[in-house]
Amino acid sequence: MKWLLTLMLLLPLLAPRHAAAMESTPVSSPRAVASLVTDTDAMQPGKPFRVALWLRLAEGWHTYWQNPGDAGVAPSLTLDLPAGGKASPIAWPTPRRVSEGPVMTYAYTGQVLLPVTVTAPSGTIKAHAEYLVCKDICIPEEANFSLKLPVGTPAPSAQAPLFAAHDRAVPRASPWAAHIAPDGTLFVQGPELSQNTVTDASFIPQQSGRIKDDAAQPLSVRQGGFTLALKPGADFNPQQPLHGILTVRDRAGLLTDVSLTAEPGSAPGPAMPPLPRVLAFAFMGGLILNLMPCVFPILAMKAVALAHSTQRGLHRGHAMSYTAGVLVTFMALAAGLLAARAAGDAAGWGFQFSSPVFVAAIAWLLFAVGLNLSGVFQVGASLTGAGTSLASRSGHLGSFFTGLLAVLVATPCTAPFMGVAIAAGLAAPPAVTMLVFAVMGLGLAAPYVALAMLPGLRHVMPRAGSWMDVFKQALAFPMYGAAAWLVWVVSQEAGPSGVLITVAGLVLLGFAAWVFGASQTATTGVRRFGQATALVALLMAVTVLPGIGTSSEAAGTALGATDGAEPFSAAKLAALRAEGRPVFVDMTAAWCVTCLVNERVAIATDAVQHAFATKKVAYLKGDWTRQDPAITAYLRQNGRDGVPLYIYYPAHGGEPEVLPQILTETTVLRTLGMS
What we know:
Immunoglobulin-like, 18 helices, 4 domains, alpha+beta, single chain, five-stranded antiparallel beta sheet
């Protein structure tokens, strides 16, 4: 028995050392289990370490963030430290929006770690926690804890992985500029942001009352940035910055959380044009519509009617009826645009402008508009006739329908100006979209209103003539220029083969327009033959269009060899490992916001780049933007179906280490053995 007793005494010394568990006695209820934990198993006086309230919530129950939202109370942790000790505020991880009936709250489910950084002369810690847990009802709970850390050489505790997971859940500093407008519109700008990368976004304010938490946050994305239409709350101040957490969902479905500060004012620069400038262009666009051959005859007939009438009050009434018809039609067009945008979002068309097929189709559309303006073919003649007929009617109803049809008959003649309105609408919140269209309508109605209010203007009104056709044809060239620019965009996305297909489609489209236009004034048989020939040419163009998306010569250089990176290949990886070099593999894509943010805040930093150089780490970057089959195979070999994927291969054939999808600079440096 003596030998057995000796063996039992020696076993703790012979066994391998494991991380010590530093957790207080748990305090339990049917709803939650709470305890106090530390990230280290020992402490040194005066050296910081972390202590956390660890809550494990029963299924269906939740607790709250520092700003609970419309309801709730944030947890609190009060530490009783030895004299000379101090503790930081809680480092809050990102919450999620949780709808509780008619209110919106910001909460945690499952489990959550709420750490503070402590500096103390000894490791004796007492703490008191209060936390509200809610399901169908809300119940306040509290707990008292006591924990004593031995003094010694610190080492990670058994709970250290909880702190590492928490660090990945804390929002990172935003790499993007942000501004908050007086109407609550949040502007966010960054080169990574586009229809290609952002599929959804939401904002959580750091302080309550700044926005209406339960209101929808409509998203509008464009190249270089996006807007969220927030609704100001009772405590919103347009002169103060707005702090909070911005969550962005990318095409891969990954969420990126950043700590954002939005400065007062609209976003600077061309990415988000100031609203007054947009409205000025909208008004001018509407004003110029009156010079188009489709609309001018209607306006001229109304001017003649005004000239033969002496009842000034009646003139003003008809002008208001005409304006009402114009505005109603423009509002209907705006509503249709918003409905189409909403349907597009629901159908997952969030990145259509990054598709070379879509870009080529838009180039063809603008080219066709230019051909129409140049007179190659005509559309809208029947509507013009209808507009002329209704313009000759008397009464306010006739004036109303004249305004309505003036907009409709202007559309085929004035696509350039409608294109400006559509572009502004796609880049703006719904309220701004409606405002832009309303101002364009006021521009269209302005000459008739001026004629009604100021009779002297009728004598200086320009007469219809051949100059109008010349003006219309001149407007075709901006359309041709826009189409040429889009062909260049195709070259960046689909390479030379994509350009060849796009230009071939332009030739077919031009032929179709010419045949259709040439046969419009011919006999019935010739006209039908021309229409059939044009249709065949159009079908041929549509047939070749999908080939642009399968071009193997796509440029794909958006994720080129930056920061010393080399293009990934399995052969390159194998060769580097055979040399014994350490390798850092970064699998990314141009549409992956998480990937691009990781690169900026955790890979492209001076500290990490210096570590790569010091350790002679080969940095291989794989671009999965167009789902390269070789990269797809590599992802699947490593148990992934998407990006990002980060793998570090140590020198001399060591076992590879897969890093978290949410990277920090500290994580990368620790993996490289530099921290």
